[in-house]
Amino acid sequence: MVSIYIRTYKRDIAWLDFCLQSIHRNLKGWDEIVVCIPEGQEHHLRYAEGLRIVTSPVYANDYIGQQVRKLLCHQRAQGDLVLIVDSDLVFLPGASVDDYMEGGKPRILTCKWPDPPDATTRRWRPVVAKLFGEDPPCSFMQGHGARLFRKSYLEAFCRRFPAIDEYARRQPRNAFSEFQFLGFFIFQSERSDYAWTELSASPLPLYHTRQYWSVDGLTPAVLAEMAKAGFSARWPDTLSPLDQFKRWLSQTTRRAKQWLKSIGVIHS
Questions:
Q1: Most confident stretch, 134-143, 179-188, 245-254
Q2: Taken in order 59, 12, 75, 195, is the CA torsion positive or negative?
Q3: CATH number for position 67
Q4: What total number of domains does the chain contain?
Q5: Distances (CA, A) of 123 to 128, 131, 147
Q6: Residues 6+ away with beta carbon under 8 Å from 139
Q7: Same domain, yes or no, for 207 and 245?
Q8: What is the residue-wise DSSP string for 135-179?
Q9: CA-CA distance, 58 to 142, in Å (whole number)?
Q10: pLDDT tens for residues 56-106?
Q11: Are 85 and 189 contained in the same domain?
Q12: Would the pLDDT of 12 be above 80?
């Protein structure tokens, strides 16, 4: 049995609408969809059908909260395989859960740390080493908005780190990475249960998906792409006027920063 698990929140509901449409229309090989949303936000999913809704505790930093609940998704998913999907991922025609497997095993993508280390290496390598007490040999944060894991390994990870929720709540926003942690744990454990693709030596496998960035918003260009793919918004905006303003302000600020970077006024 294959479970699809999506951890979302109120500002991503419009994206989730398109994601779910694409799953039902294009993705083959799954048995259930589980959507997790913070407690108190369930009403934003009142238009959703064909899925099971579960809730998670509220986190002061929901960026951390989303990652933790993915690590704990085995508590809600019924399948022995769990495909963890981002709300802003759209599956294209021909998509299948088999895209995430190789030789009957879930595939994990890796990438060697560059030497000398780049900004990504300096950011994530110490974060993983802090939790494990050991330096990871490569980056495991590779993928296209969806990753497939055996439920038994999600359970085993939480047995090794039973206080991962409390640990996460103490970490800064940029000092926690669910897939770096889970990938290294599997690498240390029974790595033969997974297929490994090293991207510095092999091309990226074919995934029938289109990954968006929800923080950029559903722009006219994105909506045109969705329409071309046969998708249209089905649900009305469920955000309050205040939350709509906060979303607009966040997206506008992000675009302004991107423009200022492009003309060299500010630097990363």
A1: 179-188
A2: negative
A3: 3.90.550.10
A4: 2
A5: 10, 14, 22
A6: 110, 111, 112, 113, 120, 121, 124, 125, 180
A7: no
A8: --SEE----SSEEEEEHHHHHHHHHHSTTHHHHHHTS-TTS--HH
A9: 27
A10: 999 988 989 999 999 999 999 999 999 999 999 999 999 999 999 999 999
A11: yes
A12: yes
Domain shared by 196 and 250, yes or no? no
**Does 266 share its domain with 204?**
no
Q: 64 and 181: one domain? A: yes
Locate tokens 């454990």: which residue?
189
Mean pLDDT, the chain, as a whole number? 91
CB-based contact 43:113 (threshold 8 Å): no
How many whole angstroms separate alpha carbon 87 and alpha carbon 12?
Answer: 7
* Of residues 40, 58, 56, 57, the one with CA closest to residue 5: 56
Query: Do 94 and 187 lie in a common domain?
Result: yes
Closest alpha carbon to 88 in 167, 173, 22, 182: 22
For residue 65, give its domain range: 2-237
Residues 80 and 181 in one domain: yes
pLDDT at residue 268 tops 70 = no
